[in-house]
Task: inverse folding
């Protein structure tokens, strides 16, 4: 599905400020957030009462002569209270001042941000499958993953319910009928399916939701491939987990924020354990204007873990989405597999390229090779032809030739460049780019490949030195054992977070490049080879693909440790993440430089290690409420988000976020060189051996002084929890961000607390 553009901007801190000009008479959808739900809203009668109260509130601000507009789009009344409705700007402004309303903000459209990946993660753990992942693969505990996405294709073999037991009795969800979806499409694997944009269906017609669902919890399917590429057994991270699908998207409306909130509300009430969200806004929204942050906060209150993609706006800094501390935010990395399409030049040289094409070209026949600017159409800009801009190439000059173009104009999509060459009957296209990894264009039967800049120079030099340069482009093949791996994907959004630099974001990294998983077998899927039936599996890249890897891993841990809280699972994943690649060297980005925590979070997930972390950091609801106070929200607003008696701490400030939130990572947004050292406190819980002694060790960049106290902590039957302090002194450190970690080890377990410190 094409990416959806964000329609409306939001303010940074408070609810959106409405204009002071004459009120607009046109209506548009708004979300009215009223905080925590009432206790009696969870029954059927309570739900009707809540909807009636929402309608009554609407009637208080909509003029009586327009009573036909007193209707709800969605009513939220399970985990939190509120509704969405069509309002004018003036009506929205009136509602925002109502004492029962916490915030009113416009609806928005969100953007949609495997054979080998799970085996690769298991190998990277260093434990081995015998002691790690597979030992617990068929746990008897039922875990339910809610996938909020574009729906699901129920006929996929990844969602077969063979050998699965009865649906858990605690499940309260439904399987909704749709225009092309029946209740019978659900089974003991796919136990629930809802949709929110009417008319509509739970059925996935884009492939995004099916791909993410099968990555998280698809059954093992042997001999899966994309037309022979990536062949192997495709499986999800938690193959025995149940799936509940929530389709919040449609071709007409996109993926809307009000539907997102309703899906989260329903998923919590239905009984899911984990919610996986692979979409979000490119605009950094305030924590009480972001539908995902609002819904995830109340999910966390109810013991449901929410995992989200970081976004695909890298490699620029301050682009990461989903920065609330109660969300586990996932960056994307590569695995040790690539799809290569080689270029053979007439001088005998072979150039490595990356692509997915199923061309019929062979080594035995070469074709004329030409630069884009040398086959430009009349009256076109040379730069356009050099970049293969559609309409810039001349069919008489380009026909039958392999064209070489560059990607200096970043606004042109790969598929548009390929169309530009294919439409003038070129025999193939070679693109010369900066970073080739990431989004591989599926060229179908058209000979296409993309090469790195340094390899492109070899092609340019050959063309200049030859009177009749020729080449061929070979069809794609799998290449395994790529080193180094994993590498942070260039498209993966980076931190620090725009809203606050006192929480480290993204949290963690997982495979998100060239991931094979289930897709709908649709004939209009781009990139299909000529004459072939639609594939049941597809290859996709993005943080959207990384997110369900962590969702599956979280469900896997939940199945082994059913009594662990969401924060314990989050901590286990984060403190056991790996920070080295398959060359046993530090993780890097695509430029070859060491990857910082603002790129990779705490490192690459290691599900096998997370089963036995030794120590965990438990974060409470009070921690998160305090966070909102420290951030700057009023006590009145924060109190509406909880049923407990709560008061904001005195002297709340953003600087207190770092020390007062028991998070499994540390981020100091500002460490002043001229002031005394800053002390950060953390509380850890022993979940390993009853009697254990842990010793600390610090790894920090040169110049930054970091001391841990105490250096040794012993646990026993009566002592399961302990505090420690970390002192940061930047007086001798150069200005800017410094990274490192504190390692606690008892000789068997290693719990790593990554830190990012910005010295001013």
Result:
């Amino acid at each position: 599905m094409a990416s959806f553009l964000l329609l409306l901007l939001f303010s940074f801190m408070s609810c959106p400020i409405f204009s002071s000009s004459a009120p607009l008479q046109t209506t548009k959808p708004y979300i009215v957030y009223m905080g925590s739900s009432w206790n009696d809203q969870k029954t059927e009668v309570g739900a009707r009462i809540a909807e009636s109260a929402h309608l009554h509130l609407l009637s208080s601000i909509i003029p009586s002569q327009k009573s036909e507009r007193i209707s709800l789009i969605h009513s939220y009344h399970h985990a939190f209270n509120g509704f969405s409705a069509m309002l004018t700007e003036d009506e929205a402004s009136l509602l925002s001042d109502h004492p029962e309303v916490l915030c009113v903000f416009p609806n928005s459209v969100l953007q949609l941000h495997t054979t080998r990946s799970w085996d690769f993660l298991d190998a990277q753990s260093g434990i081995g499958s015998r002691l790690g992942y597979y030992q617990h693969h068929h746990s008897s505990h039922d875990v339910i993953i809610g996938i909020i996405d574009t729906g699901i294709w129920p006929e996929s073999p990844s969602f077969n319910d063979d050998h699965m037991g009865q649906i858990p009795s605690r499940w309260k969800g439904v399987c909704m009928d749709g225009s092309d979806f029946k209740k019978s499409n659900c089974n003991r694997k796919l136990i629930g399916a809802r949709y929110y944009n009417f008319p509509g269906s739970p059925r996935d017609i884009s492939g995004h939701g099916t791909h993410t669902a099968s990555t998280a919890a698809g059954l093992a399917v042997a001999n899966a491939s994309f037309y022979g590429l990536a062949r192997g057994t495709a499986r999800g991270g938690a193959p025995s987990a149940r799936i509940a699908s929530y389709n919040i998207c449609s071709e007409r409306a996109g993926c809307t924020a009000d539907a997102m909130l309703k899906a989260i509300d329903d998923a919590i009430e239905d009984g899911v354990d984990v919610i996986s969200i692979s979409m979000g806004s490119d605009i950094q929204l305030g924590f009480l204007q972001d539908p995902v942050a609002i819904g995830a906060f109340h999910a966390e209150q109810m013991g449901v873990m929410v995992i989200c993609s970081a976004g695909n706006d890298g490699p620029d800094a301050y682009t990461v989405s989903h920065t609330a501390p109660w969300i586990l935010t996932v960056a994307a990395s590569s695995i040790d597999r690539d799809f290569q399409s080689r270029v053979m030049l007439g001088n005998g040289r072979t150039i490595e390229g990356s692509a997915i094409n199923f061309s019929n070209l062979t080594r035995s026949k070469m074709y004329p090779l030409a630069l884009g600017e040398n086959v430009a159409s009349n009256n076109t800009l040379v730069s356009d032809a050099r970049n293969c801009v559609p309409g810039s190439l001349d069919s008489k000059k380009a026909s039958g030739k392999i064209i070489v173009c560059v990607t200096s104009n970043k606004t042109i999509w790969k598929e548009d460049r390929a169309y530009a060459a294919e439409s003038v009957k070129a025999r193939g296209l070679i693109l010369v780019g900066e970073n080739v990894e990431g989004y591989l264009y599926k060229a179908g039967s058209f000979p296409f490949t993309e090469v790195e800049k340094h390899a492109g120079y070899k092609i340019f030099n050959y063309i200049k030195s030859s009177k009749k340069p020729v080449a061929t482009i070979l069809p794609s093949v799998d290449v395994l054992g790529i080193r180094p791996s994993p590498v942070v994907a260039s498209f993966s959004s980076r931190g620090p977070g725009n809203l606050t630099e006192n929480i480290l974001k993204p949290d963690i990294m997982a495979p998100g490049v060239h991931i094979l998983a289930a897709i709908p077998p649709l004939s209009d899927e781009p990139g299909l080879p000529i004459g072939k039936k639609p594939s049941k599996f597809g290859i996709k890249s993005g943080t959207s693909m990384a997110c369900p890897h962590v969702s599956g891993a979280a469900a896997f841990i939940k199945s082994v440790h059913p009594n662990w809280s969401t924060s314990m699972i989050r901590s286990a994943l984060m403190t056991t993440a790996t920070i080295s690649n398959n060359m046993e060297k530090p993780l890097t980005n695509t430029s070859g430089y060491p990857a910082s925590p603002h790129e990779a979070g705490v490192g690459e997930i290691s599900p096998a290690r997370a089963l036995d972390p030794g120590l965990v950091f438990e974060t409470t609801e009070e921690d998160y409420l305090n966070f909102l106070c420290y951030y700057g929200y009023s006590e009145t607003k924060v109190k509406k988000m909880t049923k407990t008696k709560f008061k904001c701490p005195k002297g709340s400030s953003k600087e207190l976020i770092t020390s007062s939130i028991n998070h499994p990572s540390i981020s100091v947004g500002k460490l002043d060189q001229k002031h005394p050292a800053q002390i950060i406190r953390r509380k850890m819980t022993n979940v390993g051996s009853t009697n254990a002694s842990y010793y600390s060790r610090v790894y920090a960049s040169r110049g930054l002084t970091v001391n841990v106290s105490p250096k040794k902590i012993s646990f026993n039957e009566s002592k399961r929890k302990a505090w420690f302090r970390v002192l940061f002194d930047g007086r001798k450190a150069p200005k800017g961000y410094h990274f490192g970690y504190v390692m606690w080890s008892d000789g068997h377990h290693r719990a790593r607390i990554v830190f990012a410190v910005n010295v001013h």
Confidence is low (pLDDT under 50) at residues 1-14, 16-24, 128-138. The radius of gyration is 27 Å. The chain has four domains: 28-107, 114-336+486-561+577-610, 337-478, 615-759.
